[in-house]
Amino acid sequence: xxxxxxxxxxxxxxxxxxxxxxxxxxxxxxxxxxxxxxxxxxxxxxxxxxxxxxxxxxxxxxxxxxxxxxxxxxxxxxxxxxxxxxxxxxxxxxxxxxxxxxxxxxxxxxxxxxxxxxxxxxxxxxxxxxxxxxxxxxxxxxxxxxxxxxxxxx
Length: 154
Fold this sequence. Notes:
Blueprint: E1 2-5, H1 6-23, H2 37-42, H3 51-62, E2 66-69, E3 76-77, E4 84-86, H4 125-134
Parallel strand pairs: 1-2
Antiparallel strand pairs: 3-4
């Protein structure tokens, strides 16, 4: 197995993605009514994702097993799903936070009560947990590192 830096790995994945996007009309392979593939591909972001996840992508795209080396960007745990996906913590006094988790789509507004309905999120954290359980095909990968251990992630 060969080593590859996080930087070079992300560069390689983006290069392959761009080549596929230019050479293959992916819409021919998608079910009717699927979202626009070009928009989805342009939003691929690797900030904070685990090295193991990047290794899986390289293997899926190339068939080569690699070990991705390098430090994962430090992200903060989402208060809803617990995965390290947020670039800053909510701080009412400093006016920071309000990041939206790319995994569960919860907008961090300082909520800590799992059953508290939040208008900004159109539901409670419990509602979001149920949504994840009802759509396991969308949420089956552990792309990000787990930031805390709680009953929801056991």
